[in-house]
Amino acid sequence: MSPIDNFLELLSGKQLQWFQQQSKTRQAAIAAQWVGGGRTPEDIVEGNGGPAPEGGRDALPDLQ
């Protein structure tokens, strides 16, 4: 699988739609930010002008 395919598997909803509307070159550049970057795909999409994750940060469980 390519880095883009791996990235796509982790997105959903509006973020997935937004990502798929980008050019293949832009998709590759965005997915490359994930490799070793320490950020989630959702944060990377939002940081590149895409929509926020559905449910927002409040939907994420607290890890202790």
Q: Uncertain segments of ≥5 residues (pLDDT<50)?
A: none
Q: What portion of the residues fall into strands of 2 or more residues?
A: under 5%
**Main beta-sheet annotation:** none
Radius of gyration: 12 Å
The amount of helix comes to: 40-55%
What is the number of strand segments?
0
Helix and strand run: HHHH
Q: Compute the average pLDDT.
A: 86
Our count of helices gives 4
Summary?
The chain has 64 residues and is mostly helical. 50% of the residues lie in helices and 0% in strands.
Report what the structure shows.
The chain is mainly α and 64 residues long. The chain contains 4 helices and no strands. The chain has helices at 3-9, 13-21, 24-32, 41-47. The longest helix is centred in the first third of the chain and has 9 residues, at 13-21.
Keywords:
single chain; 64 residues; mainly alpha; 0% strand
What layout of secondary structure does this protein have?
Blueprint: H1 3-9, H2 13-21, H3 24-32, H4 41-47
